[in-house]
Amino acid sequence: MKRALEQRLQDVEGFREPRVELEQYPTPAELAAHVVHLAGLHDDLDRTVLDLGTGTGMFALGAALADAPRVVGLDIDAGALTVARENEARLAPATPVDWVRGDATRPPLQSTEATVLMNPPFGAQRGNEHADRRFLDAASRLSRVSYSVHNAGSKSFVESFAGDAGGEVTHAFRAEFALSRQFAFHDADSKTLDAEVYRISWE
């Protein structure tokens, strides 16, 4: 099932005009399929799934293809959401996705029972420091459980933040994040970053 999901997600188009200030990097299909598969194994897809900072829809479409009952993809970038809608039309999941434009760190949504899947900015760009903290804060307010991708070496930060917000890291694993050249400051055609994925229970 995970392999089949990954193959479907390979057809998700990435950013046409990526914005460096938003750290817009497409989530690799292999990583998204693994996270969605893990969420399914823990019965975390049996409720509404929110993809905060959905970009062009990788996690949202993965959840929709995995038959989550309701899926919402939220992003501040209208251009990215246009591509996400086109991706949905191409993949044609049985569960439709509600695409919402808004700030994922101040989501125009009301929920405390959702599952959040997200690949937040790592906060590597000047002016965007601690962006992942703001995303985690939003997840803590909206969800029963969240899955998030972070830069390698984030373990102490994520565990501390979760504990202070009444949550608990229940699972963590390393992952590789393949990046293609997108911005002028990139000095290689491709690069693989070390990343970490955390499942946090906010109950």
UniProtKB/TrEMBL annotation:
Domain of life: Archaea
Gene Ontology MF terms in the entry: methyltransferase activity
Segments forming domain Methyltransferase small: 39-141
Gene3D superfamilies to which the protein is assigned, alphabetical: Vaccinia Virus protein VP39
One Pfam family hit: MTS
Cited PANTHER family: RRNA N6-ADENOSINE-METHYLTRANSFERASE METTL5
Name this protein carries in UniProt: METTL5 family protein
